[in-house]
């Protein structure tokens, strides 16, 4: 019998020499390689030495019965996968159930038919081989998947680094533009032109700040709005006022994050409204309070409010007809956010000052 013809390595465990002989004869005649053992304990040793492909196991044996042998095999990961077929003279259902509970895959009663034994052995061997094959495929695919996952992770990391670099460069370029404007500001003498330069520099700074905030965040997608509004407002107050004590800044901002597409319009709106308050609400260096609120309402909308306790909007102002662009820009930016823009009455009992409100989803 050559190796290639061998159909499988079978261990027969039976304390009856006649049974052992008979089973071995049937199996070897059908090209199986056979080992025999007449006790449970020896069988376990023999299995450990070389794992068989399948075990035919008698139940009633002195010292250690077949159930116990099977249980021990199933409890050991190195032998748990070997299919065990019980061959026993016990014909009652209870014994059969016990066999399956111990981990057997099949149960044949004595006296047995050679064809039945062969059919069952072949079926369980091919099932066991199929199972191994499937496990190998799963293992291979899992390894492949792991490799692909690693590659994706690395690519993602690289993308993040690039994105960070881009935000950094955009911010640097904007900072440079802001510096060029600063240089020109020093040469402008006309007060109106000077104001235009300062406003433009402030708008550029606002956008630069968004990019700066982005490359400092972990996910590069979301900006913490609280920190952003604070930094923006502080910087505006610094560039539009001469005395540090003239304006008090109050903020009430929920801890939320916005992505780039929303943070930029939001930042530009705040830039226009806060700079307006700084430029127009407190003439002759009068002291005042600017309040910025950012909250979510019951309809899950974000509500941005900017208010001041200054002189209030001029009586007959028509935003559409002014030459200025600030208050024309705010409704445009609001619609970029799919939001609504409203000018509300002044705050407090005296209804002094101005309040702007933007609600966006
Ligand atoms: N918070 C405010 N308090 C008082 N008046 C304001 C306030 N905000 C705006 N205004 C008035 O509304 C006008 C229009 O504002 P708008 O922002 O459009 O123009 P601007 O600030 O003069 O110029 P810019 O185009 O640079 O913004 C201002 O000129 C000012 O008279
Ligand atoms: Mg303005």
Give a description of the structure.
The protein is of the alpha/beta class. It has 3 domains: 7-112, Rossmann fold (3-Layer(aba) Sandwich); 144-220; 222-361, 2-Layer Sandwich (Heat Shock Protein 90), CATH 3.30.565.10. Helices cover 52% and strands 18% of the residues. The chain is built from 9 helices and 12 strands. α4 (93-102) links the parallel β4 and β5 (106-109). α6 (191-215) packs antiparallel against α8 and α7 packs parallel to α8. The mean pLDDT is 90. Adenosine-5'-triphosphate binds next to α8 and α9.
Strand order of the largest sheet: 2-1-3-4-5
In DSSP terms, counting alpha (H) and pi (I) runs of 4 or more, how many helices?
A: 9
**Distinct ligands:** adenosine-5'-triphosphate, magnesium ion
Mean pLDDT: 90
Remind me, CATH topology of the largest domain? Heat Shock Protein 90
Shape: rod-shaped
Helix and strand pattern: EHEHEHEHEHHEHEEHEEHEE
Which keywords apply here?
binds adenosine-5'-triphosphate, single chain, alpha/beta, Heat Shock Protein 90, 361 residues, 5-stranded mixed beta sheet, 5-stranded parallel beta sheet, 18% strand, 3 domains, Rossmann fold, binds magnesium ion
């Amino acid at each position: 019998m050559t190796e290639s013809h061998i159909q499988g390595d079978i261990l027969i465990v039976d304390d009856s020499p006649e049974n052992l002989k008979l089973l071995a004869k049937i199996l070897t005649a059908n090209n199986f390689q056979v080992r025999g053992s007449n006790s449970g304990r020896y069988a376990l040793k023999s299995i450990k030495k070389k794992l068989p492909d399948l075990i035919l196991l008698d139940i009633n044996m002195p010292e250690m019965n077949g159930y116990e042998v099977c249980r021990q095999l199933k409890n050991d990961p190195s032998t748990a996968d070997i299919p065990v077929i019980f061959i026993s003279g016990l014909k009652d259902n209870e014994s059969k159930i016990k066999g399956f509970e111990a981990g057997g895959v099949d149960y044949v009663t004595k006296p047995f038919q050679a064809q039945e034994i062969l059919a069952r052995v072949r079926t369980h061997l091919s099932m066991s081989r199929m199972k191994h094959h499937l496990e190998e495929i799963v293992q291979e695919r899992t390894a492949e998947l792991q490799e692909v996952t690693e590659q994706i992770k690395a690519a993602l990391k690289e993308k993040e680094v690039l994105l960070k670099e881009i935000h950094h460069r955009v911010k640097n370029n904007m900072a440079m533009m802001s510096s060029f404007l600063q240089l020109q500001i020093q040469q402008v003498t006309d007060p109106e032109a000077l104001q235009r330069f300062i406003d433009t520099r402030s708008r550029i700074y606002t956008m630069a700040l968004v990019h700066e905030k982005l490359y400092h965040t972990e996910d590069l997608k979301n900006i913490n709005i609280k920190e952003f509004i604070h930094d923006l407002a502080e910087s505006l107050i610094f560039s539009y006022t001469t005395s540090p004590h003239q304006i008090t800044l109050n903020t009430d901002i929920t801890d939320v994050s916005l992505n780039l597409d929303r943070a930029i319009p939001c930042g530009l709106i705040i830039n226009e409204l806060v700079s307006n308050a700084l430029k127009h609400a407190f003439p002759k260096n009068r002291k005042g309070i600017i309040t910025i609120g950012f909250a979510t309402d019951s309809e899950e909308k974000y509500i941005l409010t900017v208010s001041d306790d200054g002189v209030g909007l001029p009586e007959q102002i028509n935003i559409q007809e002014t030459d200025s662009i600030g208050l024309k820009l705010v409704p445009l930016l609001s619609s970029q956010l799919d939001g609504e823009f409203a000018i509300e009455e002044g705050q407090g009992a005296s209804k002094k000052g101005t309040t702007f409100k933007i609600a966006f989803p």
